[in-house]
Design brief:
CATH architecture of one domain: Beta Barrel
Distance between the termini: 128 Å
Structural class: alpha+beta
Largest sheet: 6 strands, mixed
Radius of gyration: 56 Å
Strand content: 25-35%
Shape: rod-shaped
Number of helices: 4
């Protein structure tokens, strides 16, 4: 330090009368120090704020992402299964003989003899029974006598007319007598014709004393015994029936005097079943379609039949089509009156699709199936269903085989909502091919 500076520092301040000068150096240092502290505090505040806000932002973003992710439902998709080209419709029916005829008496009398019992095979024209008709026989005798009388009168008239005609030019008889003889001859000819016709009618009735089989078949009922009175007619009336023991049982006490069935003959080499096919299947139920027939008395056995004709008209009351199915029955195993189930194998022009029942969505506007497009957006597709098999259902319209449908869709799903397609293990589904597995063949319509 120089001497001048030391002298200045040690020398007492000189007194002066002017204003006092204040040093600003300490103020600047204090200001600088305060500013430094403020900056440090701001830095600390910013660091504290950043370390508190960033996690919150991350948490909020994660929560938003999680919420958005949870808002997108996870769904599993399947493809509709194609239905079979042939559909089976099961309908009940009753077996009937191809030809079936109740045999009634055409004349009154007593049973003289019968020649065939139940279960007998008969041929067309074979004698079944003979009926005694004493009254008719006497009427035939009377008609024969009347015919002989008319023929004798005609011969007499012929002789008289020829004789008078020979005397026409001799004036031995009058012209009036000749004309009368000629007209008498004509009248006697008419009488002979009338007597002959009456005779023929009674002979026709007399021929009904012998009862013949109308066609080849089997006797399925015999309701007469020797000596029993039978009446002409075919209106059924209060009749009798023959039980397997061969005894006649009457529907009412007293003498059987009303028309009754003598025999019942059925042709069973071919039997038939008439079934009522619902109108929706009428276009496919046409002649030539093959059928399967099963009966409770033949478990596990199938008989083959064919649709031979239809009514070609829908019944207005039942909205069904009457169809006749013929079944060969050479061994006579199928009996008329037996209950049977007819399995119609109907071809399908447009095979339906089959989906699980769980894939259906019931809404107030109707039945829906939820499909998923390529952008994984759900669409509520209206569908028309057909047969219901409990776990699966037939879809007639509204879906295609390439549609991805949601299995067990949530009730809250809405149209055009994004979805996440996952597999059964919860992983995203990468499949884009329709399911080629065949449908459940157990589906049947009854």
């Amino acid at each position: 330090m120089s001497q001048t500076e030391n002298h200045a520092n040690t020398a007492p301040p000189a007194s002066h009368t002017g204003p006092r000068k204040v040093s600003i150096e300490p103020t600047r240092q204090a200001t600088r120090r305060a500013l430094t502290i403020l900056i440090v505090l701001l830095i600390i505040a910013v660091v504290v704020a950043i370390t508190g806000i960033i996690p919150r932002l991350h948490a909020r973003s994660a929560l938003r992402e999680q919420t958005d992710s949870m808002a997108v439902p996870d769904v599993s998709t399947i493809f509709p299964q194609s239905g079979e080209p042939m559909q089976e419709v099961v309908l009940p029916g009753t077996i009937q003989a191809y030809a079936d005829a109740p045999i009634y008496a055409r004349t009154n009398g007593y049973v003289k003899a019968w020649y065939h019992d139940i279960g007998s095979h008969v041929h067309k024209g074979e004698l079944l029974a003979v009926i005694e008709t004493p009254e008719l026989d006497r009427q035939v005798d009377e008609a024969r006598a009347n015919l002989n009388t008319a023929q004798a009168n005609l011969r007499l008239a012929n002789v008289t007319a020829r004789r008078y005609e020979g005397l026409r030019n001799t004036d031995a008889v009058s012209k009036e007598s000749i004309d009368t003889a000629s007209q008498t001859e004509s009248a006697q000819q008419a009488s002979v014709v009338a007597a002959q016709q009456s005779m023929n009618q009674l002979l026709e009735l007399q021929s009904f004393e012998r009862v013949y089989a109308p066609f080849d078949g089997l006797v399925t009922a015999r309701n007469i015994n020797v000596g029993q009175l039978v009446d002409s007619g075919s209106n059924g009336g209060t009749g009798s029936s023959m039980n397997p023991a061969g005894n006649v049982s009457t529907a009412a006490a007293g003498t059987i005097n009303s028309p009754q069935e003598l025999f019942h003959v059925s042709s069973m080499d071919t039997v038939r079943i008439f079934v009522n096919v619902p109108g929706v299947y009428a276009p496919e139920a046409r002649p030539g379609v093959k059928t399967n027939i099963d009966l409770p008395e033949y478990p596990g056995r199938i008989f083959q039949g064919t649709i031979v004709r239809t009514a070609n008209a829908i019944d207005l009351m039942t909205r069904t089509l009457m169809v006749e199915v013929d079944i060969p029955n050479r061994r006579h195993e199928l009996l008329p009156g037996a209950y049977a189930q007819v399995h119609l194998q109907l071809p399908m022009k447009h095979p339906a699709l089959i989906i699980p029942v769980d894939a259906l969505l019931f809404r107030s506007e109707g039945l829906r199936a939820v499909t998923v497009d390529a952008q994984n957006h759900a669409h509520l597709q209206p569908i028309t269903v057909g047969r219901d098999w409990g776990t699966k259902i037939e879809v007639l319209s509204g879906l295609t085989p390439k549609d991805r449908i949601v299995n067990s869709p949530p009730d809250s799903i809405v149209d055009d909502e994004p979805v996440r397609v996952v597999t059964g293990g919860g992983q995203p589904d990468q499949s884009d091919q329709p399911d080629q597995t065949s449908p459940d063949p157990a589906g049947k319509t009854s």
